[in-house]
Amino acid sequence: MEHDRLMRRTLNVTAVANLGAALMFAFPDSLGSLAGLPAPVPALYNVTLAALVALFGVTYGWLARQPVIDRPLVVFSAAGKTAFVLVVFFCWLAGQVPFLTLLAAGGDLVFAAIFVWWLFGPVPPPYQGGG
Questions:
Q1: Which terminal residue of the chain, N or C, has fewer Cβ atoms less than 10 Å from its own Cβ?
Q2: Are 26 and 46 in contact (CB under 8 A)?
Q3: Which segments of the chain are extended strands (E)?
Q4: How many helices (H) and strands (E) does the chain have?
Q5: Distance (Å, rounded) from C-alpha 106 to C-alpha 88?
Q6: 7, 63 contact by CB (below 8 A)
Q7: Whole-model pTM?
Q8: In 3D, which of 80, 104, 77 has the Cα closest to residue 91?
Q9: 59-108 pLDDT, tens per residue?
Q10: How far from the centroid of its chain's Cα atoms is residue 12's Cα?
Q11: Of 28, 60, 62, nearest to 42 (Cα)?
Q12: Contacting residues for 24 by C-beta, under 8 A, at least 6 apart
């Protein structure tokens, strides 16, 4: 099914993108400057954020490899991506981050849109197990 194949590819790309973003959050003084992230910040904040972003990335990769993609987890993922973009947008409006950061977060909006598109597509039959 082409619909699921595109979603699995998107999940894999999102997994890699999240792992790259986690590195940017982990090292805001160097890698993070590529996306205009504010620095310096206390290690508690950037390391915690990096760990959460990496955890989401691993989840996307895991989800792409499941026999049936878990729809509630995709809803949660779309909400998470959208929430991150909104946070960055409002920080940009408040002058807290440069436009470059908002532009970098735009990728998450694309991923969220694909997730929502997939959710409105055909629902596969329940997984019946290996065999």
A1: C
A2: yes
A3: none
A4: 4, 0
A5: 9
A6: no
A7: 0.86
A8: 104
A9: 999 999 999 999 999 999 999 999 999 999 999 999 999 999 999 899 99
A10: 11
A11: 28
A12: 31, 32, 34, 35, 37
